[in-house]
Design a protein that fits this description.
alpha/beta; Aspartate Aminotransferase, domain 1; Aspartate Aminotransferase, domain 2; seven-stranded mixed beta sheet
């Protein structure tokens, strides 16, 4: 292949159709552009999708069932931080996080004043999916009487072994001490939630994983209905986008109404104001109170407009990702290149990223391969540089030498472009370029 055949293959552009554009225009014409009816509808539809796996549920026929289940926000980082604050994370607490993840997983913990405790991944990742999944033996040893939460990352859209982690935290239940209320509305809710659950909480960073599922105890469960608390991302590069944006959700907690929890998220995301803009439009409803000096991280109706129409198309988008992944699998298998297995027994990925690991190369060869692909117009990436290698986390005392499996996984990794704007011809071009360059660099 010579450069005369060159294509330009972006790594992860947003997939926008005329339906998203039309919905945004309608939102603009409506005069309601901040948090309003479209955001609330998007929350209900996400709740139904997380429970059923269907994007066609008429949530307006059963508002009581779908209301107060999901909170849409301006980012997944905000969603994770609010999840942690609802649970009651505070200074002095420890939160266990995989060393192999993006910074948002850990930075939300730091925002709460708690200590991040990194745990290495399994050697070469999960033996079946190859996803860089946490080492659960190390996880169990890392739990102390200061541990209040564990954040699992369903990286690339592949679901972790939650059953195993729930078993671990049950075995460690005696180490857990619920937080005492500080007399505030948030402190009281957090204390009650911790007393009811009575163990270390399990959080899911599902920035990549809307629509992914796993069979747990013979029941198929979708991400958002597995962990105690879950955060999703709708950033521009994600499977579903709202430009920026995210969502928080939680599993029902016995003895606490979902509406109480939902209201607390609303307070935290709107400066502690006890009426949102939509509520204040009612006649005579101008007055409000500030319950706490909290944050501003709500989603707008313009963002939700994009999300609603993206959700309409999502099943087809997931199917297209699966088609592309199968083509990449074939190319990698022919080369002897290690790659993620997105679709295995009992686990269905959302197919967000395609990670490959090239046998026998080092970082210098990896950079050469990435450069040669770029010369041919193919954009690639690396997911991820482990957090103990980053300046901010080194300053907190972490050293990558303590996480050899994370470093080894990263050291020969290249992520291929995976998105629904790719045509069959684009995918063939990426495969041809990849095969040619790997053979040139690795087998010369």
């Amino acid at each position: 292949m010579d450069l005369g055949d060159k294509r330009i293959i972006q790594f992860s552009p947003p997939d926008m159709s005329e339906s998203e554009i039309a919905e945004v225009c309608e939102a603009l014409r409506s005069g309601w552009i901040t948090t309003g009816p479209r955001t609330k509808l998007f929350e209900r539809r996400l709740a139904s999708y997380i429970e059923t796996g269907s994007v066609t549920v008429d949530t307006e026929k059963d508002l009581d069932n779908w209301n107060n289940r999901v909170v849409c926000l301006n980012s997944a980082t905000a969603a994770e931080e609010l999840n942690l604050r609802i649970w009651g994370i505070q200074p002095g607490d420890e939160v266990i996080v995989p060393a192999y993840t993006y910074t948002a997983t850990a930075s939300a913990v730091v925002h709460c004043g708690a200590k991040v405790v990194f745990v290495d991944i399994q050697k070469d990742g999960n033996p079946i999916t190859h996803m860089p999944e946490m080492d659960y033996d190390q996880l169990e040893r890392a739990i102390t009487n200061k541990t209040k939460a564990i954040i699992l990352v369903d990286l690339a859209g592949i679901v972790c072994d939650y059953k195993k982690v729930f078993e671990i935290v049950e075995r460690k239940r005696s180490l857990f001490s619920p937080v005492h209320s500080d007399g505030t509305i948030l402190g009281d809710l957090s204390s009650r939630i911790q007393r009811i659950i009575g163990r270390v909480a399990i959080f899911a960073d599902d920035a990549h994983s809307l629509g992914a599922s796993r069979v747990i105890s013979e029941i198929k469960k979708y991400c958002g209905s597995i962990a105690d608390f879950t955060s999703f991302s709708f950033h521009a590069v994600k499977n579903i986008t709202t430009a920026e944006g995210g969502a928080a959700t939680w599993c029902p907690i016995e003895g606490i109404d979902n509406s109480e929890i939902y209201k607390m998220y609303q307070l935290l995301s709107l400066h502690g104001q006890n009426k949102d803009a939509l509520s204040k439009t009612k006649a005579g409803a101008w007055e409000y109170d500030i319950i706490g000096p909290w944050y501003k991280c709500n989603m707008t109706d313009i963002m939700a407009a994009i999300g609603l129409r993206q959700l309409d198309r999502y099943i087809d988008m997931l199917n297209r990702r699966k088609e592309i992944i199968h083509k990449y699998d074939s190319a990698c298998d022919g080369l002897g290149v290690f790659h993620l297995n997105h679709y295995v027994e009992d686990t269905i990925s959302s197919g967000h990223l395609y990670l490959t690991r090239i046998p026998g190369i080092d970082d210098i060869k990896r950079r050469e391969i990435i450069g040669l692909l770029a010369e041919r117009g193919v954009s690639t990436n690396v997911h991820y540089k482990p957090l103990p290698m980053m300046t901010a986390y080194k300053a907190l005392g972490w050293n990558i030498q303590a996480f050899p499996h994370s470093y080894n996984y990263y050291s020969n990794l290249i992520s291929l472009p995976l998105h629904t704007k790719l045509t069959d011809e684009d995918v063939e071009y990426v495969c041809d370029c990849f095969i040619k360059i790997i053979n040139e660099v690795c087998h010369d």
